[in-house]
Amino acid sequence: MSAEPDGPEDRLRRFATIWSRAVFPVTSTSLTRAEFEQRLLPLAGRLRDLLHTRGFTAEDAKAVGAALVGAHCTDPEALARTLDCVDAYLVLYCGDGSPQDELRARSSRLQHAMAAGYAHALRERTLAEQEAIAQAALRAQGVVAQALHASEARFRAVFEGAAIGIGIADLDGNILQVNKALMRMFGLTETSLRGRRVLEWTHPEDAPQTWKLYEELVRGEREHYHVEKAFNRPDGTALWTNLTVSLLRDADGEPQYQLALMEDTTERRLLNLRLRYEATHDALTGLPNRTLFFERLEKALGAGEGQRFGLCYLDLDGFKTINDSLGHAAGDRLLVEVADRLQSCATAPGEMVARLGGDEFVALTTGAGTERAVDELAERIMGALVTPVSIDGRDLLVRGSLGIVEGPAGERTAAEVLRSADITMYRAKSAGGNRAELADPEADARAITRHGLTTALPTALERGEFFIEYQPLVHLGDGSVRGAEALVRWLHPQHGVLGPDRFIPLAEHTGLIVPLGRWVLEESIRQAREWRERHAGRPTAGPLRINVNLSPCQLGHPGLVQDTVDILERAGVTPDALCLEVTESALIGADDDLLKPLRRLAEMGVDIALDDFGTGYSNLANLRRLPVSVLKLDRSFTRGMQQFPADPVDLKIVEGIVSLAHSLDLAVTVEGVETGAQAEQLRILGCDTAQGWYYARPGPPERLHELALVDAVG
Description:
The relative contact order is 0.04. Helices cover 51% and strands 20% of the residues. The longest helix is centred in the N-terminal third of the chain and has 50 residues, at 100-149. β11 (399-408), α15 and β12 (435-438) form a beta-alpha-beta unit. α1 (8-23) runs antiparallel to α4 (76-94). The protein is an alpha/beta fold. The radius of gyration is 40 Å and the shape is elongated. Strands 13-14-16-17-18-19-20-21 form an eight-stranded mixed β-barrel, surrounded by four helices. Strands 2-1-5-4-3 form a five-stranded antiparallel beta sheet, with helices on both faces.
């Protein structure tokens, strides 16, 4: 048993030895294996240096791949063996003690760059050879044409010495002469080849126009044609060629022979197929990637009438948690296992599975009856995820959210189909995950509209597209207008006026609610100052007050108190002109840190109203610790009072809430008052203020001014 090398140079030479042993058998070189190893040793050193370089450029690694071509390692197998060797041994023998995951990732980048450099260098070399061969072919064609009329000896020298395959046949397709290069390409003797006819050399992959061009040439209607054509060798393998066929005429210009020049492109085609595979398949799972999937999807969508498609879009639930807790290596192993299971679900003709990236996979089925097929495919996918995946001794539960799109071909683009599937998948995830949802055009339209509104929100604030309507707050005892609630609206250029329910959740999700809320507060305070100035000295119970809604996101913003103070000071308005409304749900389980800003505002003199009271599940005892001065009773409690006689249960509930609130020195405001009977009943129960359509719908600030004047005159 041999000892492992000790020093870095010993390990480097060991790596070069393994590399040379792997590649030498498939390399066309006159060097011995030891000499070839010495040629690879500097390249191994460059790879080691790049492995240790944290920010190496792809060009450095590409140069190594190009150097392989310079060393005559042009067989496609040479590249494959090189990449396998680098993947298996570079980190093992040339690692510097850095974390293995980092070295593996850097090694992977090296391999990709080497393959790209190798392909580029091989392509440049091939193009140069093709140009030389083409020039030789043209010269050979001219010389052959002259030799047929002049010197048989000169023709024979060119014919036999040419590096490309040359064959001559009569116009009936009988092969008359072939050179040695052509015999080597086919692996046949001259006798075997001369016994064949051109029309026997059809191949399943012949381009549709190949034999049409041939017929035109032998009829004398064209002088030459050039195609890429495959031939069957006797051993069953395919010979791929660049084929140029020219018409030879006699001294009188009459068609007499056909001359074929063949360049063997089999190895280059195999390399291109390998590179194409790498470009269209996921390196981790081996599944088709986004590029190949879109090609297949576009082909399915472009199928003829009567054809349909079905698409399943899968996103794993909680995959980020697995990556964060167990590491990316475990996450990759999980993805590989999921990919294998999904691959086993799509085995029928017209079905495929692809990985779009991350933990997102798609499955496609095509044909005439995909309505049922896609449902069955979705069931197989969800069933494949039921069994836990074992990773490092842990059984991990795998769950996924699945969006299903099915329909006829030709009606939508690939991007539209994938967008619908993505939207549907997120709808399944929003519903709790571990489920499949079928695409719904109306739901898609709503999601697209939401996305459009979300992206338009920032510029809408800059362009001044928001405005505020005010709904008066009326004192139930004397009917006087005591203030108004500020309700923001969006005048959208396409959708018209939008209520807060359409855009406030989007603003909260994007964080725009903070600047939008600050703008609403500024505008509302400015309007409150104007009202107070215009109604100074009126014989009512006090100055008008403005109520402004505060979202949970604003409540947790660190600048809430200072922003409010600054706005009040700039407007010259005292804090008692402002009431901030906070929903009950936002304060359920609130800790002291969350309540601290509200307490500071309340101590300043700003009223705090608990909005939508009764819709949550808060403990009534919590009212003692909340810095609120007003309860806004949800309209659901008073809906039964719109008719006479009122619902006795609702009366008891409201009576109890009002009694509790007053015992805690809290005022009670009721929302959604729509009838006089309802207003009278609430007055009898002791509610303090109310708002609703019975008094006025939300409107411009001038309307509140008019109502206040009527109240003052009355």
